[in-house]
Amino acid sequence: MGQESTWAGGGILSPMYPWRYPEPVNRLAFYSQPRYESLCQALLDETGIDPEWTRSGMLMLSPEDAQSGLDWASQSGADMKQVDAETAKELEPALADGLDGSLWMPRIAQLRNPRMGQALRRALELKAVTLREQIRVSGLIVKDGRVSGVSTDTGSVMADNVLVAGGAWSAQLVRMVTGPLPVEPVRGQMVLFKTEPDVLKRIVLDQGRYLIPRRDGRNLMGSTVEYVGFDKRTTEAARKELVEAAISRVPALKYAEVERHWAGLRPGSPDGIPFIGPHPEIQGLFVNTGHFRNGVIMGLASAQLAANLMLGQEPVVDPEPYLLKP
């Protein structure tokens, strides 16, 4: 649990350049953002594992469409302002010289994905939820248009409702009983620098790349977007590109150790809008997948919406944009 894209991602609690995303993506983000701090605190209190929710703020360096961002912020009520090069350097002294105007979102936070996954897992264990791992699902059990469980390599598991939330692998599961689901793996490679704490203080975005400072001094640089199927191998070319991009933005990283280099597979959907809700043809079958680059920030809202729909409750957001169509 939590070892695929959940573990591999950066943990920024905002879409990168949120004005570039469809409104349904930001709708889920807006629901999740004010709730993550209390969730992380509750998990820490309950499990002793700290997801490290941290309000770093997000500094977007010289975006070409800055005015579009400001217009979006004005319409949506997001806390964003334009800052000049001098102010950007005051906000983040580690940045290289030569900046143009940047956009600053002071309320954007982050968390550490692996620790969030560990805390959630421990919370389930404390609630005596049965977890079955390393078991291959070989099929969905469907009769007369209704799902009644799943077949696995250790036997059948029966249930009135089945939720497919298999990340990049979700389409393979759904395809067992119905037509294709437009979710595909998209590889992202990242590197981790080991430095002293506070070398970098802010989340920094530049040309689609991000640097994320952790509390212990580590700094995360990502991420590539590669359509290579289910290939999770790292490449030397991507490592070199990410390291050089990081150093060009924060010269102090030139002297830092590259501690790790890894890759994960995002569940890519055509426009980044996840599929959440009931299958249109099979009763009792639900999906929650296709979050692409924004799985963490949409995750809390997505889980709540999926639960609402499975339990017949009032949905926390309008489900229509996320529903699978016949």
Q: If you compute it from the alpha carbons, what radius of gyration comes out, rounded to the nearest whole angstrom?
A: 20 Å
Shape: globular
Mean pLDDT: 95
Structural class: alpha+beta
- Tally of helical runs: 8
Give the distance, in angstroms, between the N- and C-terminal Cα atoms: 31 Å
| Helix percentage range | 25-40%
Give helix and strand order, one letter per element, not per position: HHEHEHEHEEEEHEEEEHEEEH
Largest sheet: 8 strands, mixed
DSSP E strands, number? 14
Low-confidence segments: none
State the assembly state of the protein chains: single chain
The largest beta-sheet arranges its strands as 2-3-1-9-10-11-8-12
Strand content is 15-25%
Protein model, in words:
By secondary structure, the protein is α+β, with helices and mostly antiparallel strands. The chain is built from eight helices and 14 strands. It has helices at residues 5-8, 23-47, 66-76, 85-91, 113-126, 170-174, 236-249, 295-311, and strands at 58-61, 81-83, 102-105, 137-143, 146-152, 155-158, 162-164, 184-194, 203-206, 209-213, 218-222, 257-268, 275-278, 285-289. The strands form three sheets. The protein has an eight-stranded mixed beta sheet with strand order 2-3-1-9-10-11-8-12, with helices on both faces. A hairpin with a 2-residue loop joins strand 4 and strand 5 (146-152). The protein is globular. The model has no long low-confidence stretch (mean pLDDT 95).
